[in-house]
């Protein structure tokens, strides 16, 4: 199964200045729970946006997509030059599309589930966006509302 895990603003922003536009500890915990034991597919910039002391993300398979074959990664972290190659290597495993924009754009076409944190903010000067969620394709199946953000699960119809 392929799940995309993302936190997105009201204007679909996911990143600004190669960082998250917010700091929501509950969302980190939620993301942690959703990703444990799974294969995380992320773009090179998302990898670089994770603080060095937190990467690789523990108890998960960290996969970085880059076209740079010389890009150095710590032992145990996998590098591929396409999403397809990573998926082939990990077929029959639980896959998480972990961002950023290009990864989400490609993987939303093949994903089964979206685990979205909707953040009640509009982010100016955003540089990375999540694709729009077409409600003819995605059905909300679960929701938990908090002050300032909501966790929502969507399944492909
Ligand atoms: N809110 C969220 O849930 C969330 C989640 C993840 C990330 N983010 C944020 O998003 C931002 C980073 O995302 P981003 O969109 O700027 O960059 P990104 O997608 O993480 O990384 C882009 C890079 O990944 C590689 N790449 C991506 N797609 C590829 C493909 N199909 N084939 C080969 N290589 C590919 C390329 O690396 P090379 O240039 O090395 O070839 C490309 O330059 C940060 O601000 C981060 O904090 C937010």
From TrEMBL:
Annotated GO biological process: dihydrofolate metabolic process; folic acid metabolic process; one-carbon metabolic process; tetrahydrofolate biosynthetic process
Catalytic activity from the UniProt record: (6S)-5,6,7,8-tetrahydrofolate + NADP(+) = 7,8-dihydrofolate + NADPH + H(+)
Residues spanning the signal sequence: none
Pathway membership, UniProt: Cofactor biosynthesis; tetrahydrofolate biosynthesis; 5,6,7,8-tetrahydrofolate from 7,8-dihydrofolate: step 1/1
Molecular function, one GO term: NADP binding
Segments forming domain DHFR: 1-157
First-level EC class: oxidoreductase
Keywords, sorted A to Z: NADP, One-carbon metabolism, Oxidoreductase
Annotated InterPro entries: DHFR, DHFR-like_dom_sf, DHFR_dom
Keyword DNA-binding in record: no
Gene3D superfamilies in alphabetical order: Dihydrofolate Reductase, subunit A
E.C. numbers: 1.5.1.3
PROSITE patterns: DHFR_2 (PS51330)
Function in brief: Key enzyme in folate metabolism. Catalyzes an essential reaction for de novo glycine and purine synthesis, and for DNA precursor synthesis.
Family that this chain belongs to: Belongs to the dihydrofolate reductase family.
Stated name of the protein: Dihydrofolate reductase
Biological source species: Candidatus Magasanikbacteria bacterium CG_4_10_14_0_2_um_filter_37_12
